[in-house]
Specification:
6-stranded mixed beta sheet; 5 domains; alpha+beta; 19 helices; disordered N terminus; Aminopeptidase; 27% helix
Amino acid sequence: MKIHSKQINHTPMVMVLILLLFFPGFSPVSALNETRDYSRPDEVNKRIMQIKQQGGQAVKIHKLTSSPGGSDLLMLEIGSETGSESRKNPAILVAGNMDGTRPITTEAALYLAEKVISDRSSYTDLTWFILPMGNPDAHSRFFENIIYVDSRNFAPHNDDMDEFTDEDPYNDLDGNGVISKMRVKSPEGTWIPVSGDPRLMRKAEYKDGEKGIYKIYDEGIDDDGDGEYNEDGKGGTNVNANFPHLFEPFKAQSGPYPGSTPEVYAILKFAFEHPEIAMSFSFGSTNFLLTPPRGGRQGSVDMDKISIPEEMAKMMGFDHTRTYTMQEIMEKVQPMLPAGMEVDESMIASFLGLGAVVNPMQEDLVFYNSISEEYKKYLEEKAGKSERMDPASAKDGSFELWSYYHLGVPVFSMDLWGVPKKEEEKKESSGITVESLEKMNSDGFIALGEEKISQFLKESGAPAEFSADRVIAMVKGGQVTPSQMAGMMKQMPKPAGDAKKGDPGEQALLAFSDEVLGGAGFIDWKPYSHPDLGEVEIGGFKPYSDINPPAEMMDSLLDLHVPFVFELVKKMPELMISEVKTEERGAGIYALDIWVENKGFLPFCTQMGKRNKIPAPAIITLDGDGLEFLSGKKRTPIQELDGKKAVKQTWLIRADKNTTLNIKLDSKTAGHDSKQIKLGE
């Protein structure tokens, strides 16, 4: 790492030490976008083929579809049941880089697949479906000659709704191979440089009397002459905004309807053809392990103020002129239902057409929060305590939200890396006040030394031309005494507080670029004569610098984070028959009690899954010659069972003594068990 002398201070040293601790094997780097170590789309698929060769019969490759740009969407299936029509093992669905902007997450999915095939015990009773590159078109942009960040695939789309398509892309005006920003002075400007570091920009605060100076554009020209810049580039649909849950219609990047892009349609189809999927995992832009799924979304219906249509209200005994809470409706409806049938929110929401759930269920947040604390402790034990900027929130229409709200399974995500928080440099006080200065003689003032006097002048807000060496010379020459200097300082305006520093994320990113990347993450502003805008400056952060780490950090990041996936697997729900009791009641009648236990930490199923009635319930089946069921049924569903809990099921049956009773417990997502007993023993 090249550091100029003027850059050396405590903050860079602290930053490097943190990175050395947090990323074992990390070494400071001096370049960004070192793509040789990240895999291009064709290289990703070659590595998938290599994993197939290494795994042999345990590995199968599914070609889900081809992207609009012509890349194959390949999914790895790893397990002992690969190729089998009959499946008993639960499965995990893993998706990498659905946004297409984080090559590190594709590497994480490949790394996970290699780890799985290297240990047979990791797939003996479990199937892995691993999609390393969910958005290959966007992924490919990282490797293009002109680099810019865009999550859309290569499906043509007329973004500006004129008579042409994809006709106004970004333009690399300064020829440096990346698309950055342009700033141009304008009377209509809304941006100003950040005080203390004019490389950064922030919005002018009009309430504080600030006047904007600059307009900011993405680098490029108005190719189609419509007065807009770069508004209709190549693409397409953002694959990670095209899933059904909270899909945003009428937005260019969302696509015309959920599942409209081939990548998403293929994933939806595959998932619903494999009901054994019990957990989902995303390597992408979010991190549900650091920040559990967030609520706060405003749904279309306030569940505390539900109006009931007049006809329904009359039929059910409600007052259509007032509103009800969901709980009030459930309590009133329950007595109307047949015995054994319980009302729940999904039933009411469906009946009244109240729309989709938009926030995570509170019961599910219990296990999310618990696992988050465990993960943070794991990271601290492995790499030491460190702070980073918060990961992104899940986008509407994303894979993560669809997995939780539609598949009803626990979904976890990792973004693998985030910009380290900027270490605020601790400023030492000079310890000098105007009052103490007033009492000093000249010799005492000079004895303070240049460093302490310089600090005092800064604290006091002295003009920049009054440097420490100049003031000392003035005191030595008798031009001013400390008492006179104190008098002048009393007349000076008080120094302003901390200047507005702009966006904290940009502050942290700039510090990371300066102190760790040797400045490679930021392009200094340079003048350029723009054909339309006149004199502009081109510069700003390099694409991907805030969302993807330098390749040199990749191995240590994967080694640190990905193994925690196997810790999550250990928490999956696992059902078993823990105990069976029979009691002979006479006349060939037997009371039968069976306890089913969930040995796993995670519930079977999530509260969201319960609401959606997905996944399928576990089934207890009783089989034997001549069985007559007096109470209970031959097939009994178990809809839910919290982690580390057991539930008792009871039957009354008539059968001959010593009849062999076969008890089977079957679940597509939580395992299988069986027991055999003889009645009367």
